[in-house]
Input
Amino acid sequence: QTLTVDPGPGLARAAVARSVRTRPGRLLDPAVLAADLERLWDLGEFESVDFELSRAADAGAWDLRIAGRRKPWGPNSLRSGLALASDLEGTSSFNFLGALTLTRLNRWGGELKLVAQAGETPILAAELYQPLGNSQVPFAAIGLHGSETKLQLPVGADQVQYRFAFQRASLDLGLALGRYGELRAGLRHDDTAGRPTGHQPGGAPRYDSADAGYRVNLTFDQLERVNFPSRGLLAVAELYDASPSLGGDHEYRRFDLQAVAAETVGRHS
Output
């Protein structure tokens, strides 16, 4: 038995072949082969991954070829979206969002994601995601996030409009769990500044706060697809330990759990 791994143009064959556990000269195990195809799919580089088994020139031998069909888009991608909202009482809002993802920044598959949003809630965010080896399992991530929002707050007998500016910096080390999700642990620092807009009689107070601490985050993603899933589970659990020694104003612990489950009963539900 011979084995050929064909990742298509633009990808190093040796780097992709590391995800394949099937070995030439051994009895072909369908379970191992199926796991190989899943690992190649998890690389995020292919539109489809398939195999072909054919008889070799030597009697009684077989040739196994594993081939990936590259995505017709990329390696970089640009996505955009528009959100409109109205409460039917004369108040409406809009936000326009754009996200640029740059991949293959280096031989270990570094990625940079840039996000910008314009409208009622302006946002600027960036994250550098860097695998720490050819296996792409351990990784480091550095994130920056800034946003603004307006809120009406009661001050005495008046309602005062505030503009809140929020900034976040984060540093994480983690493990990519393939098609199951990821595990992260790291540091986070938040700064929030609230200022009254316009002229306020009597002077409205300002609001400033800092929050910093350690976090552990586990994401388990088995939804069939992002939009309108028909089955699967998405769960995100995070333990956060705020610490004044890192520059925060308060000391506390918080556990957050978010979950989305989807199930289909019959053909139309």
